[in-house]
Amino acid sequence: MGSRGGGVVSGSWLLPFDAGPPRPVTLLCLAPAGAGCGQYRPWQAMAGPEVSVVGVQLPGRETRWAEPPATSVHEVVTGVLDELTALLKPDDPLIVFGQSFGGLLGYEIVRRLGEEHGRRPRALVVAGCRPPHMWVGAGRGLADDDAELARLLDVRALDENDIDEDSRELLLDVLRQDARLSLTYTHHAAATPATLEAWGGQADETVTSGHLDGWRAYAGGGFRKRMFPGGHYFCLERAGDVVAALRRHWS
C-alpha cells in the first residue's frame, strides 16, 4: 500500500501532496538548503496516478515556520524514519529524491532504512549534490558569511533586485540554519542498498560531473550518472524532464 493522503499534522516531517486514496508507489522528495518541500507540489500532477509525491518538511519553514530548527542531521533522519516506517509497509515501492543538501539527507534516510529496518527502496536519486564525504565540515564559517553562503548554494533569489529586504533576511535565516545543520553530519562510508543515481546540471559550477562520480562508492545496488541542461537548480528549471526521468523507477 502506498502513501496515505490527508491533512498535514502540525510538526509532521512528511507532507503528502495527494489527498486521495493510497497509491501504490511513494516518491519522497527532499528540498535543497534554505527551501521547503512545497516546490514539489506540482510534481504530483506530473508523476502519474500510481504515485504519491510526499515532501519532507524541515522545521522553521513553510508549514512548520513557527517551530525551532532541527539541531542535527541525525534528528532530521530519525524523525523522517519514524513517520515513514509507520506510513509504508516494508514491501511498498519507495523512491527517494534529494536535491543538493536534500540529497545528503536522502542518502542517510536510505542508508538507515537498510541498516535499521531492513528495507530497500527502489532507488535513491541525488541531484546537484556532492557525495557524503565532501559534506564533512563543508558548512564551517558559512553560517556567518551570507555572501559566501549564497554563492556556494547558488541562491539567485538573494539578488537585491529580485527580493525585498525582509524576504531576503528570512531566506538567509533558513540558509544559516541549514548550514549549521550540515556541520552536525557524521560521515558513514556505507553503500546504500538501493540503486543510486546522481544527476547534475551541465552548467553547474558548484557540483560538477566529477563530484557526481564520487557517489559511485556509495552505490550498493548499481550506479547511474545523468547530466541535464541547466545549472544547480535544473530540477526546478526543467521539472517536467526531471519527473519524466524519475518515472522509469515506477513505470
Automatic annotation (TrEMBL):
GO biological process, one term: lipid biosynthetic process
Pfam families named in the record: Thioesterase (PF00975)
Signal peptide: none
Transmembrane domains' residue ranges: none
Thioesterase domain location: 26-245
Xref: PANTHER family: S-ACYL FATTY ACID SYNTHASE THIOESTERASE, MEDIUM CHAIN, THIOESTERASE
Entry similarity comment: Belongs to the thioesterase family.
The protein's name in its UniProt record: Thioesterase
UniProt source species: Nonomuraea longispora
